Amino acid sequence: MFRVMNSQYDLDAAYLSCVGDHAARLEPFGAGVPEKVSASVHGAMVAARAVAEALRSGAHFADAFKTVRRGWGRGGKGREGC
């Protein structure tokens, strides 16, 4: 991630190794950022799952609704029976 965020620089392997060894102490993203990102990603995944389940339920409802006869609920007569 460090290499991606600093792609404009030509960093050698020794420097990247040193950064990797000291990343926890350096806190390259700031204090507590990984935990905040983790919580945000978790919340987004929960929301995405809810949307996917709602779409699945909607598709099931639409398929079931297509099979309902036109005159259902009116004695099966359709429009001419009104």
Separation of termini?
69 Å
Oligomer: single chain
Sheet of most strands? none
Tally of separate helices: 3
- Tell me the structural class: mainly alpha
Topology pattern, helix = H, strand = E: HHH
Q: How big a fraction of the residues is strand?
A: under 5%
- Uncertain spans, ≥5 residues at pLDDT below 50? none
User: What is the count of β-strands?
Assistant: 0
Number of discrete domains: 2
Q: Helix fraction?
A: 55-70%
- How much is the radius of gyration in Å? 28 Å
Shape: rod-shaped
The average pLDDT score comes to 81
Give an overview of the whole structure.
- The chain is mainly alpha-helical and 82 residues long.
- The protein has two domains: 1-31, no CATH class; 32-67.
- Helix content is 63%, strand content 0%.
- It is built from three helices and no strands.
- It has helices spanning 2-5, 13-26, 33-66.
- The N and C termini lie far apart (69 Å).
- The mean pLDDT is 81.
Summarize the structure.
Helix content is 63%, strand content 0%. It has 82 residues and is an all-alpha fold. 0% of the residues are buried.
